[in-house]
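Notebook, p. 212. Picked up where the previous page left off. The plan for this session was modest: take the two constructs that came back from the sequencing core last week, fold each one, and keep the raw output in the notebook itself so nobody has to go hunting through shared drives later. Recording the first one now, exactly as returned: residue sequence, then the structure token string.
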Amino acid sequence: MALQFYGKDPNCPGNNCPAVFRDEATGDIYLQGETVTDPTILARLSQDCGLADSESVVKLPARMAEMIMEACRAGAVVR
């Protein structure tokens, strides 16, 4: 697996920061961030899409939107 690093939260000091990665072979996006544990938020998210035991919700700052989009565009299939 070759993960390409797209960036981390620019306002985060140190190395334990939210980050964005993309698997070059599959195009899958990996997001590292704060695990959401707030039951109110999880209940609201579950209204639209259930959360499996093997899944988790990760929160990333809005200021990371561009690096997330960059990772997504890199894996886009052009038809």
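Okay, moving on. Second construct, recorded in the same format:
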Amino acid sequence: MRTSLIAAAALLTITGLSACSEKAQDNVENAGSAIGDDVSNAVDRAGAKIDNGLDDAGRAIDNGTAKIGAATDEAAADAKREAGEAKRDVGASLERTGSDLRNE
């Protein structure tokens, strides 16, 4: 919106000074050029900030993915260990049951 206001002010200035001397017209051209440069620089800065924000977001996603991968690996290792313990417990229970059956 600020850019629109600046452009409108520049247009009014140019229109008002169109009947003025050549020096005034040169000043208007210089002002218009300066406004154009300011707008261009603002757009460039905005683009750079967007690029930086996207880079930061990409790094955050990569870090999150790495953390999820590590947590998944740890959970799989825990599940494997728990399954091994459960097998041993079932085996020991079956051995006790078999022993009890033989002794009866």
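Notes on construct two before I forget. Residues 22-103 form the longest helix (82 residues).
Flagging for discussion at group meeting.
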